Amino acid sequence: MHGVSYGIMVIILFSMGAAPVFAQAQQQFTVKDEHSGQSYSVNYGISGATVDDVSINPQDTSLIVSLKSSNDGNLTLTMPRSLIDAKAGTADDQFFVLVDGADTDFTEQKTNSDRTITVSFPQDTRQIEIIGTQVVPEFGGLSFLVLAVAIISIVAISAKTRLKPSW
Question: What is the rounded CA–CA span in Å between residue 100 and residue 107?
Answer without folding.
Answer: 18
